[in-house]
Amino acid sequence: MDNRQQASTIKGVTPAVKIRYLSIFAFLLVFKVTLGVCLANIPEPGIILYGKVFDNGSLLTSGELTWTFAPASGGDSVVITTTLMRIDAEGGPYSYRVELPLTSVAPGSPDSSGTLVITDSPVEYYRTAQVTGTSISMTDTVTLSFENRGTYEYINIGSSSPGDTDSDGMADSWEQAIVDADPDDDILSVSDVFWGDDFDGDGENNWTEWQNGTDPTDASSTSDVSMAYNNFLFEIFRGAEQPDSGPFVASRWGAKLICWPREDESFISGYLKIPGDETPVPLKVNETGDEARFMDMDYSSVDDLAATYAPGEYRVNLMAHEGLSGPHHLRFKVELPFYSSESFPDYITIESPWPQQTGVSTTPLFDFGSDSWDYVELLKADTLMETYLHLKDDMDTDVHEVPPEAALENGVWYLLGVDNYDRSASWLGSLTILPFRTVGIACTGDIDHDGDVDGEDLAVLMNAYNTSSSEPGFDPHADFNNDDQVDESDVQMLMDFFGSTQCMLQ
Question: Taking the model in full, what pTM does it have?
Answer without folding.
Answer: 0.66
